[in-house]
Amino acid sequence: MFLERTPVTDIHMRTIAFTRGVPPDAAIPVEQLMACQEAVLKADVGVLQYGHKPGYEPLRELIAGEHGADSNEVFISNGSIQILDLLAGCLVRPGSFVITEQPTYDRTIATFRRHGARVVGVPLEADGMDMGRLEELIRREGRPDVLYLIPDFQNPTGSMMSLAKRRAVLELAERYDFPVIEDMPYRRLRYQGDELPSLRQLNPARVITMSSYTKLISPGMRVGFSIADAGLTRKLVELAEATYLSPVLLTQAMVYEYIRRGYLEPHVRELIALYRPRWQAAVDASRKYLPEAGLTAPDGGFFVGIMLPEGARVDGLLERAGKAQLGLTAGASFFADADDAGTIPGDRFVRLPFCALEPAEIEEGVRRLAKLL
Amino acid sequence: MFLERTPVTDIHMRTIAFTRGVPPDAAIPVEQLMACQEAVLKADVGVLQYGHKPGYEPLRELIAGEHGADSNEVFISNGSIQILDLLAGCLVRPGSFVITEQPTYDRTIATFRRHGARVVGVPLEADGMDMGRLEELIRREGRPDVLYLIPDFQNPTGSMMSLAKRRAVLELAERYDFPVIEDMPYRRLRYQGDELPSLRQLNPARVITMSSYTKLISPGMRVGFSIADAGLTRKLVELAEATYLSPVLLTQAMVYEYIRRGYLEPHVRELIALYRPRWQAAVDASRKYLPEAGLTAPDGGFFVGIMLPEGARVDGLLERAGKAQLGLTAGASFFADADDAGTIPGDRFVRLPFCALEPAEIEEGVRRLAKLL
User: Fold this and answer.
1) Partner of A116 at 20 to 30 A CA spacing, among A1, A88, B139, B231?
2) What pLDDT band is residue B1 in, cutting at 50, 70 and 90?
3) What are the extents of the domains in chain A?
4) A8-29+265-372 and A42-260: same fold?
């Protein structure tokens, strides 16, 4: 399959990039996508016209069916960040109050802030948010306009929200009457353990589900989707039409054709087979070279998150790493700056995206990181 | 070529839609696009990855070359409305002052308003804006943050800005120090007369040029571009990355391949051959059935705009047209509501997009319209 090995001999020369969560080129099913796009263009010139403003209709129906939703609850757009931006446009105003996990996806913090929201992070534990801190925060500061979570293999920590916490967060959402966004682009990439119900499965009325085909098929196709009540979905579609008129339909139709042909399930199995040894290498290397660090050993996804011990030498870490041919992302960007404890340990946080690197590169990268501290 | 004729016998039964400016399906070069996308995917898996945040790099360079610009002045995005939204995000704030032609593209008014701008329209004449009114407005209300124009075959009137007015508007822009957006999606579709220099050709430093391949290749591919100074372009790219991360690259690469293969120029000639009789029919029918109306007979583009005479029966026109199987767009939506004269004749304005209709349908549609007044 797609296990092209590069020679391990030159690994000490190579730059190793633990920067963004990008799949390797070899994980993109180019041949199948070529077949799909030819079929799509032959079948329906409509994908080259304006139209399907809520997203390519057959894909809407397919996603609705998979999630036990109605197709008028499904919205498909040019990638899930675009959806988050439109959701922010519908749900928040300057001064709105948004709660996220801490740390969380840096672009989520930036998106809600760009729309004028105050974003507060609640510390994340290995099994999800610190629920006591969440409730305390809501009691003190009032009902949030949105709570944003990545329950499965969280970005950037890899953490998995337990069933008890999933239930507890939804009870809070009921009690204080706020919507919960669950962002689940990594959910299908599980390397061990059992799947837990999604928040939507537990309480569809409270939950806005978001995901995309970026991590399962291709990032460049920019096909993301949301599932929300029909009223909010209608607002999203209206704002989307005002913003970009119609989405790019060709890639949405290609995703539909890809799934319709039965290509997705075997491809996900191949991805898991490709990524599992990389995940294992990231966990093992972190334990081996950084035994003092706080590690959320994930069961799936794209990331291992590491909290370096207090006192680790983190000043100028990115620059020093760059000189050692090691690419890192600034840990602080994953932390909303209004941590209710008042301390932001972001400069000690390191995210290791492992999917695009080979096991030997991952081990070498973590070894280089440890030497810098 | 693509002149598939439908029988004229049933024309009186048919719904005739003068609603949006959409090319007919037959004008979309599906076979060539299929060849292009296959070539693109074979050549570069990169179009399925994240990347090329300012737009597909080879297409940026090609557009820059065509317009005598530097590639770092070119930004390509998911359609030109998306670019207008991002431009508004960079150039206006709540309370900003934007001037447009009156009437103008309805989505432009809506986009600037959504960003909080006050939009004022300056009456359009057959050869462009009323320059006296424009200068009077600026003297009275101060420098605008943006002036937005469609100099070639304007939407919705078809009007063409004269060379004298192009020069005059740029002199005003210099004197009062404001940027001018020229939106030129229709420029290549000229059915008679000679091309005038674009505003960019007259004064590149003052002008933000926007266009797209929607009217020349396909709307659904959503490939629009802007040319602006490198500083503003950098801001656009940053806001775009924050909003949707990367654009959909596949369709941008297809457009590049389409042009690289030399397909565009003959296709534009075919489009002109297809649209010219439709344009002629729209102009002729307007003169024949609405001789009292104010008509800007355009030399190209997608639209004939008609100002019905005072006293024409326009109450409930859209509903009455609908019952007569005639689709119309509300004329008032093309008028910013702060016309400095205080009178908005939008309810007497009718836009006739003619490209997607056959000559006989156009004549029948205008005949139906005349009977309703």
Assistant:
1) B231
2) very low
3) 8-29+265-372, 42-260
4) no
Which residues in A have their CB inside 8 Å of a CB on B?
20, 22-23, 25, 28, 30, 33-34, 37-38, 41-42, 45-51, 78-79, 81-82, 85, 107, 110-111, 114, 218-222, 242-251
Lowest mean pLDDT, pick from A40-54, A86-100, A149-163: A40-54
Residue in chain B closest to A239 (alpha carbons) equals B114
The CA-based angle B323-B327-B333, given to 5 degrees, is: 120
- Cα A36 from Cα A253, distance rounded (Å): 8
Chain B neighbors of A50, CB-CB under 8 A: 20, 22, 219-220
Q: How far apart are CA A64 and CA A81, in angstroms?
A: 20
| Fold category of A42-260 in CATH | Aspartate Aminotransferase; domain 2 (3.40.640)
Report whether CATH 1.10.10.10 matches the domain A8-29+265-372: no
- Tokens 């007044």 sit on residue: B373
Burial label, A176 (beta-carbon count in 10 A; 0-12, 13-18, 19+): middle
Q: Which residues of A touch B22 (CB under 8 A)?
A: 49-50
pLDDT confidence of residue B6: 53
Q: Do A28 and B22 touch (CB under 8 A)?
A: no
Residue-wise pLDDT for A200-226, tens only, equals 999 999 999 999 999 999 999 999 999
Residues B338, B358: Cα–Cα separation, whole Å: 37
Pick the CATH number of B33-260 from 3.40.640.10, 3.20.20.120, 3.30.428.10, 3.40.50.1100: 3.40.640.10
Cα atoms in the Cβ-side hemisphere of radius 13 Å centred on A245: 26
Of A326, A320, A310, nearest in space to A363 by CA: A326
Burial environment of residue B139 by CB neighbours within 10 A (0 to 12, 13 to 18, 19 or more): exposed
pLDDT at B7 over 70: no
Give me the amino acid identity at A297.
A
Query: Looking at residue A12, what is its pLDDT?
Result: 81
- Give the per-residue pLDDT at A66: 96
Mean pLDDT of B43-50: 91
DSSP state letters, B307-342: EPPTT---TTHHHHHHHTTEEE--GGGGS-TT-TTS
User: Is cis: bond before A144, omega within 30 of 0?
Assistant: no
Q: Whole-angstrom Cα distance, residue A106 to residue A178?
A: 22
Quote the pLDDT of residue A21: 86
- A175-184, A293-302, B132-141, B281-290: least confident range: A293-302
Output the six-digit token pair for A172.
């809070």
Q: Over 80: is that where the pLDDT of B117 sits?
A: yes
pTM score above 0.80: yes
Q: How far apart are CA A119 and CA A113, in angstroms?
A: 7
Task: Check residue A307 and report its DSSP letter.
Answer: E
Q: Which residue of B has its CA nearest to A47?
A: B220
For residues A332 and A346, is the Cβ–Cβ distance under 8 A? Answer: yes
The interface predicted TM-score (ipTM) is 0.93
The answer on pLDDT for A27 being more than 50 is: yes
- For the stretch A147-165, pLDDT in tens is 999 999 999 999 999 999 9
The answer to whether the Cα torsion of B251, B255, B256, B257 is positive or negative is positive
- Note whether B81 and A245 are within 8 A (CB): yes
